[in-house]
Amino acid sequence: MDRAKRKEWIACVVDCLDTLWKLTMSILLHIFAFPYYAALKSNTLDVVEKINDETNSTAQDKLVKRFVLSRINESKYVQAAGAVLFASVIGCLSWNTITESHWTARALFYSSIIFALVSVVTGAQQLWVLPNEDSLKAPDVDLEPLEWHMKNHKKRFVFAIQCPLMFFSYSVATFLSGLFSVVFSPLAGKATWSDDA
User: Fold this and answer.
1) Burial (CB count <10 Å: 0-12, 13-18, 19+), residue 116
2) Which of 28, 42, 65, 195 is most buried, by the most CB atoms less than 10 A from its CB?
3) DSSP codes, 51-87
4) Could you tell me the sign of the dihedral formed by the alpha carbons of 14, 15, 18, 24, in that order?
5) How far apart are CA 12 and CA 6, in angstroms?
6) Each residue of 104-135: pLDDT tens digit?
7) Which of 158, 149, 173, 144 is nearest to 36 (CA)?
8) Does the CA dihedral 181-186-191-192 come out positive or negative?
9) Cβ neighbours of residue 161 under 8 Å, at least 6 residues apart?
C-alpha cells in the first residue's frame, strides 16, 4: 500500500472513529438526561448555542442576563422541591411496609435522599456563584467571565449549570421507582391480587 492510500485510509478510520465517538456521546447524553432532556435542550443547550452565535455584544449581554435569571429561578425551585422531596422520602421510610418489601425499595429511597440532598446543595452553590438578581439589573455588570465559560468550556459549563435539575430529576425517578417497588413487591411472591397485597 503506497503512502497516499495509507494516509487516506487513516483519515477515513479517524473520521469513522470521530463519528462513532459523537454518536456514543449523544446516546449517553440521552440516556443519562432521560428524565429532564426536554428541559436540558430547550432551557440550556439551545440558549447557550444562541448566546454563542450572537455577534452583537449588547444582544448577547441581554441573552446572558435572561439565561442567568432563569438559572437563578430554577435553582430556587430545585432547592425548595428537593427539600420537600427529601422530607417525603424520609416519611416513606417510616412506613411499616418498607421492612416487609423487597430490598430495592429501601435502596431506591436512600438513593432518592442522596440525589435530593445533592440537588439542594448544588442549587445553593449555583445561587452563590452566579450573579444575584439585583446586580444583573445594573447596566455595568461584568458578564465576561460567564460568557467566556460558555464559549470555551461549553460541555463542562452545561453540565455544571444543569446539575441541580439533573440530580432532582434522578431523585424523583428513584423515589417513584421505590414506591413502585413497595407497591408491587407483595405481588412478586403471589400470583393473585388479595387483601394482603
Assistant:
1) buried
2) 65
3) HHH---HHHHHHHHHHHHHHHHHHHHHHHHHHHHHHH
4) negative
5) 10
6) 889 999 999 999 999 999 999 888 877 766 66
7) 173
8) negative
9) 44, 71, 126
Mean pLDDT to the nearest integer, 64-72: 83
How confident is the model over 128-170, as pLDDT tens digits? Answer: 877 766 666 666 666 666 666 666 667 777 778 888 988 999 9
H-helix segments, the chain: 3-32, 37-40, 46-53, 57-93, 97-100, 103-129, 133-137, 144-152, 154-188
pTM of the predicted model, to two decimals? 0.73
Cell of 128: 452563590
49, 70, 109, 155, 196 from 40: Cα distances, Å: 12, 12, 25, 12, 42
CA 157/CA 119 separation, integer angstroms? 17
Instruction: Please tell me whether residue 138 adopts helix, strand or coil conformation.
Output: coil
Q: What cell does 36 get?
A: 429532564
Mean pLDDT of the chain: 81
CA–CA–CA angle 72, 74, 78 (5° rounding): 120
DSSP state of 101: S
Question: How far is C-alpha 197 from the geometric centre of its chain's CA atoms?
Answer: 36
